[in-house]
């Protein structure tokens, strides 16, 4: 190697080289150079920096070359003999070499006549050949031109020259090139070639002289920007042979620029075929933008990674300044982006605030309504009580009368008496009014629509009709309530109670729940009342007795018991009369028999519906059948029967929400009967549950029609969720590749890599995991081994997470305040094989929890579980050093993995890790070279590559995943195919935090974006699977379902 | 130059400048006449004497001027720059000015046409280049062959200028000496070309 330049590397490796050209500006603005350099960067191997081309004053090639170098573009500094004598030139050569310039193109230079200072004295102290000789002497003999020794560093330069195959005398041109090679040229760039045929002849002669074996010849090409430019070159540029064909092509072209690029590409392709041509030199004069396209179209865009392109830094101050400048620039560039992001964040924050306000106001109005409903209920209760008392009085009177005269007379008398009692009617009115109001309140509370409400109202109306024997709407009821009282009028009280109980049950969901005992009593009373209503007096008496056993003072139970007993007696008395009209109670005189029957049909139907609502299907069937016996065409009964037979627990579809509530209330009753379930119920929890129920209603209300979710599932997400979390394994039925590819030679599809990925052990003992060790690309098991499957670590935070969406938080809501419990949950419940403890709270820009406190939390977590643990700092280099060191001092040699180590703290943390033999996470911004550099630094420090996990920085789906992917892929390919062992450590991907901070995981469920949880899980799962395919070995994730999906994928692919 | 001078001497040289019709007897007369007319026209008055020395670059012809020039406000030399310098050197009291703008030392191609053929660089390579001087005759004084601007035998700076290296190539080819052009001519020493300071040539054998 002569100078070790990238161009030299490329050429000596036999790669077809591509060089470009960069004309420095006619001013002192270094941005111009930078911009041009950036355009060319990555598309060419080196860039010629012209030296006042055509004798026009421009920024010196040395300076512009250094600027290009600082942009990571290798300069080929041009030097002409026109403007400096040997003193000036040698001085510049020394300076250029000192500052990292490694290629020098030696030219005589255009005559000053052509420039903007034709009056200038052309120096021409020497010609290009003599210049080559001079530099070669400086380099190889360490002597100045005068012969004096260069005592220290001689300029190491890869020397180039120019050749013009189209100048005269043609036959002498190769000879002259040979002279240049003889003088010291290592490579040569030719004049712009349009006449390929002539160039071919030139090359033939050059080959005859053996020049191509001693010097790399790069063919010069230029895309003609326009017809005008081509014509100008043809006519006025000496030594440039623009063919008529080129002129013609441009003339015929629709888009001259496009055609110009195509012409250039065609020429490149032709010269590529000429033996001895080692590369191409693209001179897109003031049209640098065309170069990438030309290179691409010529199929040369895959440029090798530059080697040896390192700007030599002058001083610390310069570094600081450069960094400062870069930072400022980056800040400026990012500012727009930042503003956008800020605006977005602000918007979403506002949205959240609005939502919160809305929810709060909804809750408060709901609470108010509940209060109102409660009030109603209590008022109604009072009314009912009053009424009950009145009726009792009436009954007493009846009893009295009974003892005095025959029953029928008494009955009539009583009825008459009742009828005449206007005060009772008024009470009835009050009751009805209360009920009506209660119902309305209920409607509001439950958010029922009009249809639902109407249905509910009709149901109650049916009950009322039975009690008061009239079909009126509750609105007009009060005025007509003085209608006939049924012989079963006594039952009115019971019915009232039943209705009231139903209403109570409906409301109870929002009301504070009674204590277990009280609840049981209430339930028993309800049961009793239902039985009472169903005329199952034996059961009713039993239920009430039971209730009284628990609470001897329960008024309702006492009352119920009394009533049940009374009614039992009465039932027996009435039974005889029942037979009189088709098994129905005797028809009162006041109404026709038809009407009487009709009332009973309605009554039976109503009973059936009540039973149906309670889920008492057999009872409902019985009732509906009774109704149909009397009136086989009664639609409501038919409908009810169908429902009962189908075991549909919903009475009226539009009232399903109400039906739900009733069911929910019933649930605890069942649970109480099973003591093993009961255990969990604690008083505190009940308070929470109440709120939960309220909250759930808020959330659920709009969802009801879409998908009514059983309450039980919501109350205990773990129970239901875990089964949901399970993921079916991937099918492994597919036959192996060797079978599928039968008949195709193996070497066609198989590409065996020679590199190997490091195996890194994390944790210790049985639970230790090993990642890496593969000798092939991810999951290419047909090409090599993948001894250790990729692993997934659950992320545990050291403090309650902020801004986690509910879809994720709900799995951890019970443990967010205790990191150790959290870790345990991950391991025991979700089967985590590793834990990553994120020490986010230590961030000095955030909560800034002290290292000592954080260390204690970490210690607890480490002690809580036996799976491997990765400790992930907050990302602040200094604080992480402090925190992680603090933790290691607490846990001693218990094996953990430390991260992230950056270029700012790798020394301190690397030393700590070495002391305890911990593996570390080497974290760099997304860049292959930075990743490699940090690995080298760590290795220099003494941390083995088998103790490093590379964190190349991750982007989630939609947030730069593609970039991550390509960088990871390049890292992996370098390790495997180029045996770049400095890039061979396994890759760790901390993706959970990237995924769940994405806006898309937080947006609520809606029709467009779908279910929030499902969406989040898929984003995390897809990100993980993509990273696995890019070469990731250790994933840090959050959602159990996403983890399970990813594990199923790994399992299926291995 | 002559402004304010009342009496001047126009002094010709019968050397080179006479040959190239720039400063001989004839030119002295013409210039004098022109000056008189010019001054007269601008309303002034001037007395002009005319003389022509054998050479202005040899001291024996210059020495008498010391005495003679005392009568003149200024002496206008029609010699080359050498003559002007020599007068100035030799006659401290004489106010001497140039009448010519000395361009180069060339050959008379034909009547009225001269061309630079030698730069007097003091490092002659004519033996290597077929007698054709690249130092004087190449726009960039190249030493190792034609630059890329050589097209059709013409120099890029001006189509009227032949490319000397094309001519050298042709000439040496004709002489079967083409091979010589493969040799690299080493970097030049420009001290003899004036870059080493004013040049002085001493021939011991001729010294008095």
Model description:
- The complex is a heterodimer of chains A (1054) and B (208).
- Chain A is an alpha/beta fold and 1054 residues long.
- Chain A folds into three domains: 6-221 and 277-297, TIM Barrel; 368-680, no CATH class; 737-1053, Dihydropteroate synthase-like (TIM Barrel), CATH 3.20.20.
- Helices cover 55% and strands 9% of the residues of chain A.
- Chain A is built from 41 helices and 18 strands.
- In chain A, the strands form three sheets. Chain A has an eight-stranded parallel beta barrel, surrounded by seven helices.
- In chain A, helix 5 (128-140) links the parallel strand 4 (103-106) and strand 5.
- Chain A is elongated.
- Residues 407-423, 470-492, 509-513 and 650-723 of chain A have low confidence and may be disordered.
- Chain B has 208 residues and is α/β, with parallel strands linked by helices.
- Chain B has two domains: 7-98, Rossmann fold, CATH 3.40.50; 106-188, no CATH class.
- In chain B, 26% of the residues lie in helices and 18% in strands.
- Chain B is built from seven helices and eight strands, in the order βααβααβαβββαββα.
- A four-stranded parallel β-sheet of chain B has the order 2-1-3-4.
- Chain A binds chain B through residues 81-82, 86, 108-111, 113-114, 122, 124-127, 129-130, 133-134, 145, 162-164, 167-169, 172, 175-176, 178-179, 182-183, 191, 238-239, and chain B through 139-153, 156-157, 163, 166, 169-170, 181-182, 184-188, 190.
Query: What general form of chain B does the structure show?
Result: elongated
So, CATH architecture of the largest domain in chain B? 3-Layer(aba) Sandwich
CATH class of the largest domain in chain B: Alpha Beta
Order of helices and strands of chain B: EHHEHHEHEEEHEEH
């Amino acid at each position: 190697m002569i100078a070790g330049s990238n161009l030299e590397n490329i050429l000596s490796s036999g790669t077809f080289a591509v060089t470009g050209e960069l004309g420095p500006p006619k001013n002192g603005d270094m941005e111009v150079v930078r911009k041009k350099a950036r355009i060319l960067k990555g598309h060419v191997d080196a860039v010629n920096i012209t030296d006042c081309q055509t004798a026009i004053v421009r920024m010196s090639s040395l300076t512009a070359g250094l600027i290009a170098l600082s942009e990571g573009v290798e300069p080929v500094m041009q030097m002409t003999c026109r403007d400096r004598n040997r003193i000036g030139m040698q001085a510049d050569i020394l300076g250029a070499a000192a500052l990292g310039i490694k290629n020098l193109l030696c030219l005589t230079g255009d005559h000053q006549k052509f420039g903007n200072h034709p009056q200038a004295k052309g120096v021409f102290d020497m010609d290009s050949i003599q210049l080559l000789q001079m530099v070669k002497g400086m380099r190889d003999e360490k002597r100045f031109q005068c012969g004096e020794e260069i005592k220290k560093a001689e300029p190491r330069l890869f020397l180039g020259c120019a050749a013009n195959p189209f100048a005269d005398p043609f036959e002498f041109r190769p000879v002259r090139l040979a002279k240049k090679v003889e003088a010291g040229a290592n490579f040569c760039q030719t004049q712009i070639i349009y006449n390929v045929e002539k160039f071919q002849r030139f090359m033939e002669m050059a080959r005859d002289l053996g020049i191509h074996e001693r010097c790399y010849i790069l063919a010069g090409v230029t895309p003609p920007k326009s017809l005008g430019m081509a014509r100008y070159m043809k006519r006025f540029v000496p030594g440039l042979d623009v063919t008529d064909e080129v002129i013609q092509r441009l003339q015929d072209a629709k888009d001259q620029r496009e055609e110009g690029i195509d012409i250039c590409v065609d020429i490149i392709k032709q010269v590529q075929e000429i033996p001895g041509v080692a590369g191409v030199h693209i001179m897109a004069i003031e049209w640098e933008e065309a170069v990438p396209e030309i290179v691409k179209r010529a199929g040369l865009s895959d440029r090798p990674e530059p080697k040896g392109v390192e700007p030599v830094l002058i001083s610390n101050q310069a570094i600081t300044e450069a960094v400062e400048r870069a930072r400022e620039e980056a800040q400026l560039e990012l500012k727009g982006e930042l503003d956008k992001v800020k605006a977005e964040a602000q918007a979403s924050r506002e949205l959240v605030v609005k939502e919160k306000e809305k929810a709060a106001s909804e809750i408060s109005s709901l609470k108010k309504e509940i209060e109102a409903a409660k009030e109603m209920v209590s008022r109604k209760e009072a009314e009912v009580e009053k009424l009950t008392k009145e009726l009792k009085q009436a009954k007493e009177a009846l009893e009295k009368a009974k003892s005095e005269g025959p029953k029928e007379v008494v009955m009539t008398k009583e009825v008459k008496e009742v009828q005449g009692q206007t005060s009772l009617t008024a009470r009835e009115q009050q009751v009805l009014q209360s009920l009506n109001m209660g119902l309305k309140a209920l409607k509001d509370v439950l958010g029922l629509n009009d249809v639902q409400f109407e249905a509910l109202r009709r149901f109650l109306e049916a009950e009322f009709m039975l009690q008061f024997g009239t079909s009126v709407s509750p609105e007009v009821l009060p005025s007509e309530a003085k209608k006939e009282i049924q012989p079963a009028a006594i039952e009115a009280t019971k019915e009232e109670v039943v209705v009231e109980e139903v209403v109570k049950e409906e409301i109870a969901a929002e009301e504070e729940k009674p204590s277990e005992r009280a609840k049981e009593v209430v339930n028993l009373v309800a049961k009793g009342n239902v039985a009472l209503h169903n005329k199952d007096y034996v059961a009713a008496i039993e239920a009430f007795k039971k209730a009284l056993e628990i609470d001897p003072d329960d008024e309702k139970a006492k009352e119920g018991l009394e009533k049940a007993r009374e009614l039992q007696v009465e039932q027996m008395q009435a039974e005889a009369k029942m037979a009189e009209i088709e098994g129905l109670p005797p028809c009162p005189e006041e109404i026709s028999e038809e009407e009487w029957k009709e009332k009973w049909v309605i009554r039976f139907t109503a009973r059936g519906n009540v039973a149906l609502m309670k889920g008492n299907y057999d009872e409902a069937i019985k009732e509906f059948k009774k109704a149909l016996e009397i009136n086989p065409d009664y639609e409501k009964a038919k409908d009810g029967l169908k429902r009962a037979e189908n075991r549909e627990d919903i009475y009226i579809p539009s009232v399903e929400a109400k039906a739900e509530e009733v069911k929910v209330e019933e649930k605890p009753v069942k649970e109480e009967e099973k003591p093993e379930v009961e255990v969990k119920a604690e008083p505190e929890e009940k308070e929470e549950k109440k709120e939960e129920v309220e909250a759930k209603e808020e959330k659920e209300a709009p969802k009801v029609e879409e998908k009514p979710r059983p309450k039980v599932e919501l109350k205990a997400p773990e129970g239901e969720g875990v089964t949901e979390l399970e993921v079916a394994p991937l099918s492994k039925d597919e036959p192996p590749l060797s079978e599928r590819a039968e008949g195709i030679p193996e070497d066609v599809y198989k590409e065996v890599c020679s590199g190997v990925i490091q195996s890194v052990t994390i944790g210790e003992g049985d639970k230790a995991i090993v990642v890496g060790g593969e000798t092939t690309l991810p999951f290419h098991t047909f090409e090599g081994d993948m001894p250790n499957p990729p692993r997934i670590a659950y992320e545990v935070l050291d403090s309650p997470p902020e801004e986690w969406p509910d879809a994720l938080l709900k799995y951890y809501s019970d443990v967010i305040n205790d990191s150790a419990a959290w870790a345990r949950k991950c391991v025991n419940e979700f089967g985590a094989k590793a834990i990553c403890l994120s020490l986010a709270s230590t961030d000095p820009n955030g909560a800034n929890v002290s290292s000592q406190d954080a260390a204690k939390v970490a210690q607890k977590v480490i002690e809580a579980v036996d799976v491997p643990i990765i400790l992930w700092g907050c990302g602040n280099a200094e604080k992480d050093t402090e925190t992680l060191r603090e933790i290691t001092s607490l846990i001693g040699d218990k094996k953990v993995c430390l991260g992230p180590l950056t270029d700012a703290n790798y020394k301190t943390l690397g030393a700590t890790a070495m002391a305890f033999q911990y593996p570390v996470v080497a974290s760099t911004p997304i860049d292959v070279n930075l990743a490699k550099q940090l690995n080298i630094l760590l290795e220099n420090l003494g941390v083995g590559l088998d103790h490093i996990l590379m964190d190349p920085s991750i982007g989630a789906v939609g947030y730069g995943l593609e970039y991550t992917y390509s960088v990871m892929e390049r890292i992996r390919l370098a390790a495997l195919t180029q045996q770049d062992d400095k890039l061979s450590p396994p890759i760790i991907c901390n993706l959970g935090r990237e995924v769940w901070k994405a806006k898309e995981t937080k947006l609520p469920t809606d029709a467009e974006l779908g279910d929030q949880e499902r969406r989040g899980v898929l984003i995390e799962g897809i990100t993980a699977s993509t990273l696995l395919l890019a070469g990731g070995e250790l994933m840090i994730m959050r959602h159990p379902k996403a983890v399970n999906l990813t594990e199923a994928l790994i399992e299926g692919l291995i | 130059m002559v402004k304010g001078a009342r009496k001047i001497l126009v002094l010709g040289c019968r050397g080179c400048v006479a040959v190239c019709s720039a400063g001989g007897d004839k030119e002295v007369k013409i210039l004098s006449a022109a000056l008189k007319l010019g001054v007269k026209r601008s309303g002034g008055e001037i007395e002009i004497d005319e003389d022509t020395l054998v050479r202005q670059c040899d001291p024996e012809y210059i020495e008498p001027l010391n005495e003679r020039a005392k009568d003149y406000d200024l002496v206008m030399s029609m010699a080359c720059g050498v003559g002007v310098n020599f007068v100035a050197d030799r006659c401290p009291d004489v106010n001497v000015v140039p009448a010519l703008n000395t361009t180069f030392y060339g050959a008379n191609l034909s009547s009225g046409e001269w061309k630079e053929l030698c730069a007097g660089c003091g490092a002659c390579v004519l033996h290597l280049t077929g007698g054709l001087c690249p130092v004087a005759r190449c726009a960039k004084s190249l030493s190792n062959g034609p630059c890329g601007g050589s097209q059709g035998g013409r120099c890029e700076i001006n189509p009227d200028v032949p490319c000397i290296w094309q001519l050298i190539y042709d000439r040496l080819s004709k002489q079967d000496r083409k091979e010589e052009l493969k040799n690299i001519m080493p970097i030049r020493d420009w001290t003899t070309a004036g870059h080493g300071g004013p040049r002085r040539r001493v021939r011991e054998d001729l010294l008095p």
